[in-house]
Amino acid sequence: MSENTGTQRKIGFPSSKIISETQGFQRQRILNIRILLTGIGAIVISAFLITTNINRETLTPEEVDREIVAQQELRADFSFQTEDVKATREAKNQARTKVPPHYRVAQEKVQEQIQSLRHRISQIQEIRTRILDNYFQQKKSPDLFDVSQAFSYAQNEFDKFYPSFQWSQDIESEKLVVWVLADIEAEIQNRMNALSNQLNPIIPNSGMPTTTNSSFPLFNAMQKIAEENLSYVLNEGVISNKEQQTAGLKVIVVRGNPQSDQKTSEEIELRTIPDVKRAIEEKLKPRIQEEVRKLTKQNVSSFDWVKIYEAILYTISDLVVETLQYDPVTTEIVRERTAETINPVMKEIAAGEIIQERGKRWTLESRSDAKTYLKLLEQSQGKTPRWIFSFVAHLIIASLAFVSLYRAICLWEHKGEPSVETIWYLALLLVIGILILGRGMLYFDATGFAVPVTIVGVLFAILVQMRLSAFLSFITCILLSVLFRYDWRLLVFDLAMTMGAVFSIYRVRKRRDITSASLNGIIVGFLALLAITLTTDTLISETTVRRLFLLGINGSLCILLVPGILPFLERLFGIVTDFQLLEYSDLNNAILKKLAVQAPATYSHSLILGQLAESAADAIEANGLLARVCAYYHDIGKMNRSEYFYENQNGNNIHDTISPRNSVRIILSHVTEGIKLAQEYRLPKPIIEAIAQHHGTFRIGYFYQLALEQQKFGDVNEQDYRYPGPKPQKPEYAIIMICDASESAVRSLKNPNPERVRQMVDRIVTERANDGQFDECDLTLRQLNIIIEEVSRVLSSLLHLRPSYPSTQIAEEHVSTIIQQKNSRAESEVLSDNPKISGE
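The chain above was modelled as a monomer; its predicted structure follows.
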């Protein structure tokens, strides 16, 4: 019989293993399919949410020009640059105002005055010819020619002819007579030579020689000086006295013929341009004086240079008139050309920004923005609706985001709780939820600065883990910025604010920790907002104030919503956080109060064990709170049969009256009963796991040895005397196992001291390690040593133990003999003969 059974076991074991592996593979395959389907659904939903231009009718440029009031809202699907009409107009107006007024020298007036001078000189020349001819006719002989008589005769005769001059002033003949007598000596000499040599005939019908212009060098020189200086002064520009009084005004003076290439322009102050009086005093007189002086130095005439100067000045002074005139046509042309050279002032329309609100009147600015946007939109999409391209692009972006997220979750080193599937579903819910919230807020705030994306990071950090939360926040911020038309400012702001809050979440034990993290996020977000504003805008502007207001809304929503959403997510995904553990650490919990009444010793043991486990867990940087709360509830299964457990007995051991097998069943039942009670009271999953695993699969040694002694037919199976397990899966559960056994064992020691406590704890840990109880909880040898030291220290403190200091060598030898005998017997009793310590 036994051989057949063994054969069946050999044949059946591989078969059951294969079936188990096949079932595990099928479960994993179903899990992968669920994850794949939910991922695809999340990608499609996200792409739909961040594609904001689906089913939107697009305006045409003709409708923009035709409409007075906008019939629909026009919102930019992408950021672009367009002309800022108002700013461009202001820039061009400023450029126009910077162009000085243009004044030009009226060439027609200059020529008119020059012609008047020439006519005046020609009249003088005509009178001069008459006077000299008459004078020479009276002198029949050359010997009778007298220069002094000619001077007086010419001055007397000049007074007879000057009334025929058309001058604007009364003629002073004494100043003009120089013109008549300019070359009198040369003229007399020429006529004397002519008469004596008879080279030239006498004047027709008079018997006297005729005078010619080439014989008048002084006259011609005076005429040249008069014309050149008058032309110079007039062409330099003479302005009216009223215009000259405009102080500080700069003008551009254009000289020369406007139709030729020889014209020049000069920018000068208007007050520096002379009027008629200043032109004569400052320009005309000095030039004439200088040239007349040069002329007299050449011995052209014996006249005093002052008389020549006065004659020329008197002749042309009244011909100096205003020649500089304001040229409005040229000024306007130059200003328009200058304005045309100004490049349009560009502004950026952000993605999601409203170009024209529905029901509002079109303005010149909005029409220009709309036409530019529609033109770019037409160029980019062609005949295919743009939302199709956007949706496909967003599908790609969402796919990359969620695939990266899934890979990050799979690569994250976690210990099975929460599971990859749970983390995946939680991440999808948070991302989709914030995108839905952002899509709704898009209709009220086109910037996105009010969307509380920090909620995602803070919740995920509390429920799962901080570093993985940082990656999820990064993915969420990218998708949210895509929703708000790829706004890089929003991406930087959200990343800064979210990371500032997430990295502040390390261990959350109080609600103020959430508030503190949110405030840290607000501070970091403010700094990022300040940097963005300094880069793209001015500090004192309406946009800056609006962004600060939205920052306050964002932070406030995070502070208010996280505590409200957290309990719901805890229950939905079965994730136990420190908040929930703190609730169950309340000793007024119903099941703990019941334990205190029905099993007071077990209750006291649980409280001490909680303090001990928390201290040991903190020492190895495990979750001390989890260890303490689980320790409070680990023995609640003893309530129904508390008298069967050693700490609740009053000296009479019930197990002495029943068989070892029944004793073991009762002891083992406190685990199963505890699980049932925990499920009945809906205790969190970690507490239920701690109840099931706090003994692992360790053997109840005392009753096993007793059963072996009492067996008759060899029917004692070791597995019947082991706890059902499983073995501890977390370091916190292993710590509860060690502390539970150590606390009971140390209390059973006789004459305990710190050295014996340390040895006892070390022995307990070693036995359980050798039995493989720590194989599934990732405890290292270093951590086990730390746990031994910490448990020994705390137990010594609880028992008020001190090291022994023997007074004499004799006393030490006497006592050591007695203690050595008792210790060997007590330790064997503690570890194998006592049902509380050996198995329970």
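Residues 1-14, 199-213, 804-840 have pLDDT under 50 and may be disordered.
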